């Protein structure tokens, strides 16, 4: 117990533990030491970002995907999902609606849909950036290669989300047919080199992984130093090969949020929809453990159900951008402050 507390103290002081120490910490936390960890994470978040919780509007631009990731509900071979892609005008309309509601970050996320060429995306990004001077544009569109990433950055995109999903290369390659782990990691480094604020992250509770295995993911994050980290529980989807697996817990997700806050003190760290989906109090618990971002859904209402990454994915109430007043009240009620400015990482400047 004393040893575990001193590991937490070291992590708080130095923002670093060796892989062995991280494993030890993950394997030996109990209720007491976990509370202590969460408290330290809360302090560090306060020091860097105060009580702020940044709101981002999420627009799911396409559920068409050429890949077949074993956990994902919109994988190519799920023929039960009804496919859609938004037009340029629909995307601009969503952002307009979001802008009027007060949102100042728009996250364009989608499957790997080759319809979205650089030309189309550049038009959208430029139009958004000309129309609205005080917004940030975040992309979450998979692996596109250096040249594409570069062109989209030059068009005005500010941030890119690309989770590494799992740092276990063998598991990565099993779950992502036709994809390579090296490519994934290389893409993240390229995005950083170009100058994006980069987000990575991983799934919690993938089959066969134990809590201590996330030491590998944590080391990878520490090395990459992303500006944002998105983690959430894996939730089985009934039309995927992993349908009968167990899935991750809110408990483990919160523990890992707290550790990530201590490893990367200035990181932007969302309390994700997946966390809010498996635990109605998940987001509040996340904020208390160091999370400081939420990404309510701004997609057209009739598409939301179709972007079904996992079973039961929430898109109403607190997960719906239109419910801004309710979301803000919830954040205030849990002791935090909703913020609608761009909310860049405090260490980032555009190159
Ligand atoms: N459960 C939880 N998260 C999932 N994602 C995809 N499928 C699932 C699932 N079944 C996550 C991936 C991806 C993000 C957009 O959604 O981590 O990066």
Description:
The protein has 351 residues and is α/β, with parallel strands linked by helices. The protein has a single domain, classed as Alpha-Beta Barrel (TIM Barrel). It is 44% helix and 11% strand. It contains 14 helices and 11 strands. It has a 6-stranded parallel sheet, covered by helices on one side. Strands 10-1-11 form a 3-stranded parallel sheet. Helix 4 links the parallel strand 2 and strand 3. Helix 3 crosses helix 10. The site of 5'-deoxyadenosine has 12 residues, from loops.
Features:
351 residues, alpha/beta, TIM Barrel, six-stranded parallel sheet, three-stranded parallel sheet, 14 helices, 11 strands, binds 5'-deoxyadenosine
Question: What is shown here, in short?
Answer:
The chain is of the alpha/beta class.
Give the secondary structure arrangement, pairings included.
Layout: H1 2-14, H2 19-28, H3 31-49, E1 52-55, E2 57-62, H4 88-101, E3 105-110, H5 118-131, E4 136-140, H6 146-155, E5 159-161, H7 169-175, H8 181-194, E6 197-200, E7 203-204, H9 214-224, E8 228-229, E9 232-233, H10 250-263, H11 273-278, H12 282-288, E10 293-294, H13 301-304, H14 324-333, E11 337-339
Parallel strand pairs: 1-10, 1-11, 2-3, 3-4, 4-5, 5-6, 6-8, 7-9
The structure holds 5'-deoxyadenosine.
């Amino acid at each position: 117990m004393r040893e575990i507390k001193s590991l937490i103290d070291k992590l708080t002081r130095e923002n670093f533990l060796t892989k062995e120490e991280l494993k030890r910490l993950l394997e030996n936390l109990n209720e007491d030491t976990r509370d202590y960890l969460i408290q330290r994470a809360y302090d560090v978040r306060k020091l860097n970002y105060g009580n702020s919780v940044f709101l981002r509007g999420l627009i799911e631009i396409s559920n068409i995907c050429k890949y077949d990731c074993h956990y994902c509900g919109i994988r190519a071979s799920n023929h039960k999902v009804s496919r859609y892609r938004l037009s340029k005008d629909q995307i601009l309309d969503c952002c307009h609606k979001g802008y009027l509601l007060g949102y100042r970050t728009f996250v364009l996320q989608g499957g790997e849909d080759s319809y979205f060429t650089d030309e189309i995306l550049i038009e959208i990004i430029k139009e958004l950036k000309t129309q609205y001077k005080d917004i940030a544009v975040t992309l979450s569109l998979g692996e596109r290669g250096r040249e594409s990433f570069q062109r989209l950055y030059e068009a005005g995109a500010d941030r890119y989300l690309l989770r590494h999903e799992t740092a276990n290369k063998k598991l990565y390659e099993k779950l992502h047919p036709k994809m390579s782990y090296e490519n994934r990691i290389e893409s993240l480094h390229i995005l950083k080199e170009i100058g994006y604020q980069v987000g990575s992250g991983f799934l919690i509770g993938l089959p066969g992984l134990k809590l201590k295995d996330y030491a590998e993911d944590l080391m990878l994050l520490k090395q990459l130093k992303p500006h944002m980290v998105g983690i959430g529980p894996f939730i089985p989807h009934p039309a995927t090969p992993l349908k009968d697996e167990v899935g991750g817990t809110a408990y483990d997700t919160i523990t890992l949020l707290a550790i990530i806050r201590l490893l990367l003190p200035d990181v932007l760290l969302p309390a994700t929809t997946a966390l809010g989906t498996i635990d109605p109090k998940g987001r509040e618990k996340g904020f208390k453990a160091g999370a400081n971002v939420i990404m309510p859904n701004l997609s057209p209402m009739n598409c939301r159900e179709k972007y079904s990454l996992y079973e039961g994915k929430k898109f109403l109430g607190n997960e719906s951008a239109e419910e801004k007043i309710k979301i803000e009240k919830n954040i205030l009620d849990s002791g935090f402050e909703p913020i609608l400015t761009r909310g860049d990482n405090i260490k980032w400047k555009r190159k």
